[in-house]
Every structure is written in structure tokens, then in C-alpha cells.
Fold these 2 entries.
Entry 1:
Amino acid sequence: MTCKSPKFLELYGYDLLLGSIAAFYVFMVPYTKVEESFNVQAMHDILYHRHHLENYDHLEFPGVVPRSFIGALLVSILAYPIILAMNLLKLPRIYSLLAVRLVLGCIILSTLRFFRIQVRNKFGHHVEAFFVILIALQFHMLFYCTRPLPNILALGLVNLAYGFWLKGSFYAALKCLIFGTLIFRCDMVLLLCPLGLQLLLNKSISLWKALKCCIATAVLCIGLTMLIDTIMWKKLVWPEFEVFWFNSVLNRSSEWGTHPFHWYFTSALPRSLLAAYPLFMLGVLLDRRILSYIIPVFFFVLLYSKLPHKELRFIISSVPMFNLSASIAANRIYNNRKKSFWNLLYFIMVGLLFISLGFTILTFVASYDNYPSGYALKELHQIGRLANNTNELWVHIDPFSAMNGISRFCENDIPWRYSKEEGIALGEFYRRNFTYLINEHSDIDGFKCLFNVNGFSKARPQIGFPPILLVKEPKSKNEYAYAF
């Protein structure tokens, strides 16, 4: 047993470390937001409504553009035995949300493991160790890897593509990126094209064989998504084509806000990479081998910068490769730390790692307070039965609340009922038979406010410790619970 334990840790120790941090984020921040709502509701409906499509949430609330069910189906199938056991134990549905998120995290971290193994084979064990350290100290990769966003589903395929790329299986890498592009995120074409072009210029692949490979894979992917999603949406649909048309051709995504061209390089990447941001640039200078891997990923971010609407999650697929370059630089600095100039770089690097840890803790605390309606509904469930003796407890959830922490997984069974009916004027609520309201407004006629939950508003620098103060304000992200 003593011999097997070190061997197990040698094989899976890094996975346990990263998995533990990701699981901690799941249990501490279980709720989801509007960006995740389609896949969250889809997984709930697949697990609880199964073949009764008429009860599915997306038919009542379809969203701006359709998304593919393939990712939700995969996660739901893998999570089903766990959910079945939970149902037999009559556990609340919120535990099912934890289960599906943990399953998704296992999928994404498994693909990251594949990439990490190729990093070890090509660059050595020490580079692999620094790769894990950097990811563990960063917030966004492990926080997002359990969140059912289309970007994260695509990230799993990008990790596989990176692994095959390092391994020398170039056609397999192209297939993974085509699958991710046509089914989960059409914008992955911005990574597929620079990578494919570089492989052609390097004569790593032949044009004719690449065309045959890509066309065959594309036909299979389009056929798969149209078959499954046409059934689920009850209409002929290729979801990612509609997303492409909406975001790129019509440029409607800018309606959700815009950022300047440089935002990914001056805000998103520094926040997601932290200490790895300066290190990845140094890695390109220290090891020529990494340059050919960084160039296509850099152009991916550069091309994406042309779209006015920007979010950090859109470029999260670039983080693993940038971390690899940073790990090479960290390893070189560590190996030469006894030399005078390198010793200075070593102390700077250690300081940056501690700063990364502090920033990650602050970001986690802010994220913890970023789902106010989820906490509001949880508290309402705790006091609801004590405060009301009627047989049925009917809760109305306004759109703001539905976007900031509440999903079908948060609902309880009878006697609780829920409504997400939109367009009800504030003066009309008292005419309905709602027992409770969860609403963003601070005063509603005919209802008594039971409590309010403040959400994270902003970070403010201050003199003293901690140097950054996280502010929660009722005028920003705030939830009120009312009783009739």
C-alpha cells in the first residue's frame, strides 16, 4: 500500500490538486448566471423531463439565438447515475446542479490532463510542474471549467487540439477544432484558420489531405448537430450557424456592450494569466520551440479583438497555451536562480506568484457575492413554510433574478411553484395569486419586503490592508424577497 500511494500521487497528484480547487469553487459558488442558462436548463430538463420535450424550458424561453444540446446531453448522460442516486435519497435539486457541474469539470480537466502530458513529453517534468502551479494560482480557468458555457465546452476540444498539436497528430488537432467550431463556438474558426495555415506553411500537413479531412469532419459535425438539435428545438436548425449570423454578419452582439480593440491584451489576459502574463512573453524569447505554438494563438486573440463585444470567456481557449510559454520561462528562471541576474528574476517571479494568489482570493470573494438571487431563493425556501400556512407557495422570479443565480435546479418540489412570466407591471403583482416575489425593485405595492441580498458592486483601492476593498451596494446587484 505504501508503494502504491506515491505511484498514485505521481500519476494523478496534479489532477487531484486542480480538481480540488475546481470542486471548492463549485461548492462555494454553486449558482449560475444568464450566460450559462441554456445549458443549465437543458441539463435539468434532460435529467428530470427526459423525453417530455413539451416541458423543456428552452421552448418557453428560447433566448436570443439557439444553442446546441450536444454538450448538455453528454454531461447529463455521464451525470445520470449520480442524479438517480440523489433522487432515491430525495436530496434537493440543488445537489444535482453540483453533480452536473462537477462532471463537466472532470471532462474539461481530463482534456487539460491530456494536454499537460504532452507538455511533459515535449518540455520536461519541471515545465509541467510550473504549468500546474500557474493554473492553480489563476482564478478564471478553474472557476470556469465547471460552468456550462459554450466557450467551456469548446475549451475541452481546444485542449485536445493543443495536445495533438504538441504530439504531432496534426490532423487530429484540426478535427477537434472543427468539431468545436461547428457545434459549440463558431468563433473557434479564428483559431482554426491561423493554426491550419501555419501547419500548411510548415509543410506539417498537405493541402489535399487536409481538405479531405476537414470536409469529412465538417459534414459529420453538421449532420450530428442538425439531427440532435432539430429534434430538441422542434424545427430545422444548425445552432452555431445562427450564432455566427447573429454575432458576425449582423454584428448584433455589440448590443450587449463594447470594449476598445486593445481590451483583451490590456485587461482580459492580464486578469486571467496574472503572473503568467509577463512570463509568457519572456518564454517566447527564451525558447524558440514555443514561438510556433504561440503565433496562431496570438492571432486568435488579435482577430477576436476586431469584434466590438468582448468578454474574458471568449478568449479563455488561449490561456492554456500562454501558460505553457510562461511555464517554460518559469522553469528557466528556476534552474538558473543561483546566478546573479537570474536570482533577481527569481525573486520577482516568486513575488508575482504571491500577488497572483492574492488577486485570485479577492476575485473569488467578489464572485461569491455575484449571484444574489440564488442566495435570495435559498433563504426564501428556509423561511417560506414557517411564514405561510397555505398549501401552495407560489414564487414569481423576475428576469433580473433569473439572470443572476436562479435556475430550475434551484427549485423545490411541492408545495412550491414558480413563475418566470415576463412583462408584469409592478402595480399588477398584487392582483395575482403569488405568495412570494423575488424582484430587483425595492418597493412593490401589496407586498411586504422580507429581506434583501446585496450583490458585489465594485473593487475600491484603499490605504492599508487589504489594499483593495470589495464593495457590496444595494443600488447595483440587489435582490428583494416579498411576501403577499
Entry 2:
Amino acid sequence: MGTFYQEVKSNVWCLKLGTELTKSKKEGKCVCVENWFGLDCGIPAAAWKSGFLQEGKNSNVEIRRRRKPRRIIVLYAVDDQSDLLEINIHNAFLFIDVVLTIEGKDHDPSVLNLVKDGYLAEYQNKIIPIQLNRSYVVEKEDQWSIFMLTELWKVVWKRLSDFRPDDIFLFSHVSSVISKDVVLFLKLYDGYPEPFFFELRPLLFKFWRQMKSNSTNAKFVPFKPRGCTFQYIASLCDYEVSNFFSNSCYNDLEHKKHFEKNYWSLAGWVIGNSFTPSGWQCNLCCENECIKQNINRYRKNGSTSLPLRYLLGNTSVMEHFIEKSDLFNSKDLFFEVVPNSDPFLAPSIVLSNRRYSHLID
């Protein structure tokens, strides 16, 4: 844990990422930087302001610092990695232990071949790319993601071993970037409920273009990333990740009662909200030429050619934007500009690396 914490006074340890260390040493206690909370400044805003912690007002919970960091294994469904796979891996590489990706056989460029050619060479010790031997196309993005991640889970059993009960598995789509602050919190603490879901900021093309809608049917993040411990999948869901995605194991009262009797209590947890998101859902966030190519492909082949099929009522978001003369102002779909001053504008790697400047300019 010494990698993540620093002692500012005898037996007073503060999380380095969330602490103003100079002030903390002077005052002999942990002084948190903005949007970090808790006695050791280890709770990020998305967790702190969630319905579970209620900004510290929920007296029925106890968040405890672990003796050792737990392992984090992330599974990504990939259908248009553009810059986002790199951003995901750069974003939280120090805090995750294994990254597995899965793609269809016709995916081009193939992540598998890119890795063979040296793609993300400095991170490859943690990356396992898998290519499915067939393609799977559906109209709804959430169904596609669930299918791909279920197939990837089957591979996990063949490629990984030595699972521990407290290992955390995160299931995500490559266009979703979970905040590294939240990932670090999950790694270092106990006491939070599972399964957990991530409330992401829905974006289109750029990290400052947040999608909004007046429609109650709008669904901007069709597949929300979710996570749980290995114990949850093994004991409650009978090792079947499909049961986890459908929530059938969580809703099985007998299973749930048996699990809580032998392990710990269960409660669904949504991390983050619209003001303090736990990450970003960035659809078609790539270079302008990449965006044009995808739109042209959409016009030619229909919505199934797009990386994501968001639904706005019965119309996909891309249909809506292509058909409207005024892309930014319509009665049921519009953009809200995220200001540069927003503390959750974009992942730190995007803000600090000029390679990704096109995503925030």
C-alpha cells in the first residue's frame, strides 16, 4: 500500500492522489484536494456523492482501507477502438492488473494484429487481446456488448488462474472510460456494496459535447459498465456471467439469502451522477476524418455499421443528427457544452497529452 499512501504523521497515512501533502504534513492530518474526501482523502467525488455514501451522511456504512490492494481485471468489448482503447489503458494502467479485449473476426484494424505489431508495447504485459472467430451483429448495442463480454468471460477461464474471492471484474465497452480515481478507490477499500454500475457522462465526438434530451425515452449509454467481485460471480451467479448481466442471480432470493449468510450483504450501487460522473461515454470520439468516414458508412449501410446504436425513441442518435438541418438545437436532442473549468471535463491523460488534443479542442 506504500505505493499509494504517504505517512504525514506517525500512523497517519494519506492517499497521495487525493491529498495536499505539504499542508497535510504541516497540520498532521490528511488535507484533501478538491473532489477527494474521507479521513485519508481516499474517496473520490463520484463515490462520495453517490446514493450509498450520501456525502458521509449514511451512518450505516463503514469504508475501510484494505491491508493489501485488491486485483482489478477489466474486460472490454471492442468494435471501434480509435483512440479510446489507448485512452482506457493509459488512464488506469497503474491501477489495473489485467486488460482483456474482444473483437469480431472482421474488425479492422484488428486489436490482435495491432498488438502483434507492437501497439501499446509498453503496456502489453497486462493486455490479452482476443478475436472471436465469427461476427455478431444486432441492432441494439447493449445486446452486442453483453454477447461479446459473455464470450470473453469464457476465455478468461482458459487464460487466467489463481482467482481470489475479492478480485474485481469490470465489464465495459471500449467507448466507456471509467475514471481512474474510481478504479483506485475500488482497488484500495472495502465496505462498499456490489454489484456496482457506473454513471457516465454521455458525449458525442468530443469530451465537451454532452448529449441532452427532452425525451424520457432517450438512452445515451446503452451498456453501462458494471462490476463485482469474483466471489459474487462464483457463488451467487454460479460462474455464469450471463446471469450477472441479466441480474437473475441478484433477483434470486434464495441464492441471495445464502450468499449474504456466508459472505456479505448485497445491494446494487450506482457510482456517480450527472454532475459528478464516474467516467465518460464518448461515442465516435476520434479525428474528424474518422467521424466523417463513420457517418458516410452509416448513410450507406444503416445504423448497424456504427460503433454505437443509441436510441432516441425509435431513432438512433446518428439518424437524428444526419437528418436535422440544425444539429445542435432540436426539440428532443441537443448539446450542452461542458466548460473547460469543469473538474470532470475529461480523463487526465486526455487533458495532459497533446496526442488527444482533437478530443477537447
